[in-house]
Structure prediction request, 382 residues.
Amino acid sequence: MTTERYDVIVAGAGGMGSAALYHLARRGVRVCAVERFGIAHDRGSSHGDTRIIRKAYMEHPDYVPLLHRAYALWEELEAEEAGELFARVGLLVAGDPEAEAMRGQAACYQAHDLPHEELDAAAIAARYQGLALPAAWSGFYDPLGGFLRVEDCVRRHIALARKHGAKLYAGEPMLSWRREDAGVVVETERRRLLATRLILTAGAWAVPELCRLGVAACVVRKVQLWYQGRGLDQYAQGAFPCFFIADGEHYFYGFPAQAPWGLKLAEHNVSHDPVADPLRLNRALADDDQPAVLDFLARFFPALQPELSKHAACMYSLTPDGHFVLDIHPECPAVVLGAGFSGHGFKFAPVVGEILAELALEGDTKHPIEFLRLSRFAQRRS
Ligand SMILES: Cc1cc2nc3c(=O)[nH]c(=O)nc-3n(C[C@H](O)[C@H](O)[C@H](O)COP(=O)(O)OP(=O)(O)OC[C@H]3O[C@@H](n4cnc5c(N)ncnc54)[C@H](O)[C@@H]3O)c2cc1C
Prediction:
């Protein structure tokens, strides 16, 4: 078995690990990543063609400064190599004004000066004729919203990281890590890697480590669905934006229809199917994957006669408060954690990569991440 030395090892090169790899490599750091599967694979949490990106953040207004930086970094990434990553198609957030998501969105606009339009149901119906919302509902149109081409983003981060000298060991799971002297040792089947820092970005596979550290995190199965069918034109890219709709406590989101698969949508918080082992995720379509989404389409997208064209099972790594974990490992300062992205992390990938790189190299970050540190759980317990 060979032994190789690096400054930093990244364990898991999905959405977040690929970004961390890039940010370290572009600083000239000697860095490698070990990845269980291939590049932009479909076994974790960063696949399924698209991810919504938005700046007004209903989940917590403190994410907005991070989003300003994420937007700048996505632009840089697009400029560094040709090929669009971010489709700037706008986002409609709509629902009962009393729904938690709608109140969160309004609070975010109070706290941050972000462009938006407030629309009542009649204005929404006039703008998007295929959308039939209850008369008492309202919406916010976010011109900064849109979607990211998720696999292309991962590929771009990896390609540019390699261009800057990073090494990627794909198809090579990390079997173990342990501290040794001032650094860490990572073992795979093929090699032993030594480094002064390890960044753990193992997605759903990082959840047991969060649990061990006292964070009651869990992995849940989520299904993304694509539909073709008569009436699809009314929901096509160019005529229709990304959407996030709060149907009472049930949230649905989706993307304008595009070739070849049509309209993609999913529910965000109705079903929370626990996943005991991410390697055994049920990737087949289950009987209860579609009914809530089809009911949603029948009520609010009446022009569409939906025919399923594709599905993809994916995983959320949920923390108890739905916020990320970005921190230095409390038991081992050589290890940095980026985990628990709770089903809304992808849009942050480049700024998360930058934060993880700073935590690894400098022991701290210039970004405001106090609300994402592990200590918040300890405070709650005490
Ligand atoms: C259905 C769905 C819809 C979503 N929608 C949105 C959205 O619209 N907007 C948004 O911003 N976010 C969204 N998210 C969330 C976002 O996609 C995730 O938060 C993000 O992709 C998580 O990235 P990650 O790097 O933590 O995980 P992953 O991308 O899964 O990366 C973890 C990597 O670690 C590797 N790994 C694990 N263990 C090991 C090991 N021992 N050795 C080596 N490698 C290992 C895995 O193979 C994997 O590649 C959604 C998520 C899902 C599932």
Remarks:
- Residues 64-80 form the longest helix (17 residues).
- The mean pLDDT is 96.
- The two ends are 46 Å apart (CA to CA).
